[in-house]
Amino acid sequence: MSTAAREIASHRYMAFTTFRRTGEPVVTPVWVADLGDDTVGFTTAATSGKVRRLAHTPDVVVSPCSMRGVVASGAPQWHGTATVVVGAEHARVRAAIARRYRPQLFLIDVVARLRRRHTDEVGVVVAFTNGARPGH
């Protein structure tokens, strides 16, 4: 596993930064799971802003963060490329997230069923730029 993937996967949350067409960064805290192939991934709603922004700009920046998205001063950040995945690849990402966040994911799924809300979901896989080194 690359240093970037290993470091990010060692944290429970990552600040996932995507970019608007204007270049303005948008930071979102997400769960993160090691996918075992020098990548990390998470799941999100297919209609989320993250997915829309990735459609035009796949470049991302990630950093470890708190559950609320607070990035510690001096925390490393890595540049990468994110890909939205569906089908078997989405299932692989969902399984990795389920292994890591089973109790929380179970509660979210139960609440969604009780509210009768079904959201189409996709996976997002982040591959780190060759030779990615943490920046600040």
Layout of helices and strands:
Layout: H1 3-9, E1 13-19, E2 25-31, E3 33-34, E4 39-45, H2 49-56, E5 59-64, E6 78-85, H3 87-114, E7 121-128
Antiparallel strand pairs: 1-2, 1-5, 3-4, 4-7, 5-6, 6-7
In words, what does this structure look like?
The model has no long low-confidence stretch (mean pLDDT 86). The chain has a 7-stranded antiparallel beta sheet. It has helices at 3-9, 49-56, 87-114, and strands at residues 13-19, 25-31, 33-34, 39-45, 59-64, 78-85, 121-128. It has 136 residues and is α+β, with helices and mostly antiparallel strands. Strand 1 (13-19) and strand 2 (25-31) form a beta hairpin. The chain contains 3 helices and 7 strands. The protein starts with a helix and ends in an 8-residue tail after the last strand.
Which keywords apply here?
alpha+beta; Pnp Oxidase, Chain A; 3 helices; 32% helix
Give a short overview.
This protein has 136 residues and is an alpha+beta fold. It contains three helices and seven strands, in the order H-E-E-E-E-H-E-E-H-E. A seven-stranded antiparallel beta sheet has the order 2-1-5-6-7-4-3.
Strand order of the largest sheet: 2-1-5-6-7-4-3
- Give a short account of the largest sheet: 7 strands, antiparallel
CATH C-level name? Mainly Beta
Fold-level CATH name = Pnp Oxidase, Chain A
Q: Could you give the distance between the termini?
A: 22 Å
Under the CATH scheme, the architecture is: Roll
CATH homologous superfamily title: Electron Transport, Fmn-binding Protein, Chain A
Overall, the morphology is globular
If you compute it from the alpha carbons, what radius of gyration comes out, rounded to the nearest whole angstrom?
Answer: 14 Å
Any low-confidence stretches, pLDDT <50, length ≥5?
none
Count of helices?
3
SSE string, helix = H, strand = E?
A: HEEEEHEEHE
Please tell me the total number of domains: 1
Helix share, percent: 25-40%
Secondary structural class = alpha+beta
